[in-house]
Design brief:
With 144 residues, the chain is α+β, with helices and mostly antiparallel strands. 35% of the residues lie in helices and 13% in strands. A hairpin with a 7-residue loop joins strand 1 and strand 2. The termini are far apart.
């Protein structure tokens, strides 16, 4: 779901963020990217329009948007954090070849909980399912 400038401005204001063209561009970059971009991809997109923006500014803005629950994130061990425009409960299909990420909804996964003995001293913030496999595009390519 892509938010136009007016909608991006409204969302930032509703969440108590100062509205700047760069922040609107960062939000639009996350929402306009189909495969959950990392900070470097958001930076590449936004810096085309705002060449003086720093990677650090993009990173700090993404972190602030995540803290305010404007966007979500996905973190895989050994990989960069990826940003997700969808904050509602959903799950992910992850391609093990190209690392693309697609959203999916499945009610039976929505209420999974780890065994209580496993999380005794661990505060669970959310539970999502990540299904790993090979996406359709990669299935069509021969493996070299």
């Amino acid at each position: 779901m892509n938010r136009e400038s007016g909608r991006a401005e409204e969302i930032l204001r509703d969440h108590g963020m100062k509205v700047t063209p760069q922040r609107m561009a960062i939000l639009q970059a996350v929402e306009g990217h189909r495969s959950h971009p990392d900070v470097d991809e958001v930076y590449r997109i936004v810096s085309r329009r705002y060449p003086n923006i720093s990677r650090d500014t993009v990173y700090r803005t993404l972190s602030m948007m995540e803290e305010k629950r404007i966007i979500g994130s996905i973190l895989f061990v050994g990989n960069a954090k990826r940003y997700d425009p969808v904050t509602a409960l959903h799950h992910h299909l992850v391609c093990i070849r190209c690392r693309s990420i697609s959203d999916f909804e499945e009610k039976k996964f929505d209420h999974l909980a780890p065994p209580s003995s496993s999380v005794e001293k661990f505060k669970v913030m959310r539970t999502t399912v990540h299904v790993e496999g090979i996406c359709e595009a990669c299935q069509g390519r021969s493996r070299v």
